[in-house]
Amino acid sequence: MTFVLLLLNVLVSPCTSLFHSNKEAVRDVDGFLMDQHDGNLLQVGGLWYWFGMGYTDCKLEKGWIPPLDCPGIYRKFGTGCGFRTDHLLNVYTSSDLENWKHAGDAFPIDGRPEGIYFRPKVIFNEKTEKFVLWINYLPPARTPLAAYPNATYLVAQSDAAEGPFEVVNDQPGLMYEGAGDATLAVDGETGEAYIAYDAWSNGHRISVEKLSDDYLKSTGEETNSGFLSEKKHEAPLLFERNNKWYLLYGHTCCFCRFGSGLQVYTADSALGPWIDAERDVNQRVKMSGKHVIPAQANYVFEVDGHFVYTGDLWTSAEDGLKSHDVQYWGELIFDDDGIPEIMEFLDELRL
């Protein structure tokens, strides 16, 4: 009888046992600190892929005029840390979300237009069997700030998650120009994909649009949700849970050490109508100016029914390299009304 109970316990145990430290950068299976930022996670079959910008050996910088943690926007194009033209799109693979192997640069420099890249998001299209990358792109200009009015997203695709991704669209047809931060989400039932983004042309106000069936462009004004934030907001998170859609976002926060909030909106469909839950789940600490989680949001991924928030703890690297800034992971806990509860900082995540 005891043997039978032990066997049943093994059979019904969760698929994944997850541990992630929020106090130090993660090392890959070869012992190297992972250089992985502003990206997303994607599961295909039994394998996880973690995409993110690789900032290599550049040092953290601090300016004297706002944004204080982001002086590179004022410097010569391609020279500031986080604004160089040689940053990589790193991809790592894992079967258990703990042991990661570096799979290489998925968007090689010699195969992409010259410019500054950041905040990559990769999704898989089951109809076309293609992996699709949307990534922020600043074309060459005198400074990154001068380039922002012409900012766009480059859309690339690949037969393999590890790449190489090839650009297939440099004018994806969104309603608002001057691309800001963006995220992608796929409806698990219909396979339809959506983008939540802000733009320089609208003062960084966030809206949602539906993508084309091949995920290579937006349907633009035809499906725009209307503004879902006031000005000066970015880093949206878009995901679905129990047939309810969630949009979370914070204030503009360029490599900021204090982190940004997470306002919550919900809807029955990705295009709305959206309802303000009137809750900031990453609250600001009184007097200090910091948020409880001093991170800027990247993505929310689901594993075994758990929804995990990920964000960059900018300026957290012990050695002062932006490439080694720590990634924060924390589970979103939902109340009886299906609204994420206010988060607390955890030294580690265990599922």
UniProtKB/TrEMBL annotation:
One of its GO terms (molecular function) is hydrolase activity, hydrolyzing O-glycosyl compounds. Pfam families: Glyco_hydro_43. One of its GO terms (biological process) is carbohydrate metabolic process. Keywords: Glycosidase, Hydrolase, Signal. Residues 1-17 form the signal peptide. Belongs to the glycosyl hydrolase 43 family. This is Glycosyl hydrolase family 43. It comes from Triparma laevis f. longispina. The lineage of its organism: Eukaryota, Sar, Stramenopiles, Ochrophyta, Bolidophyceae.
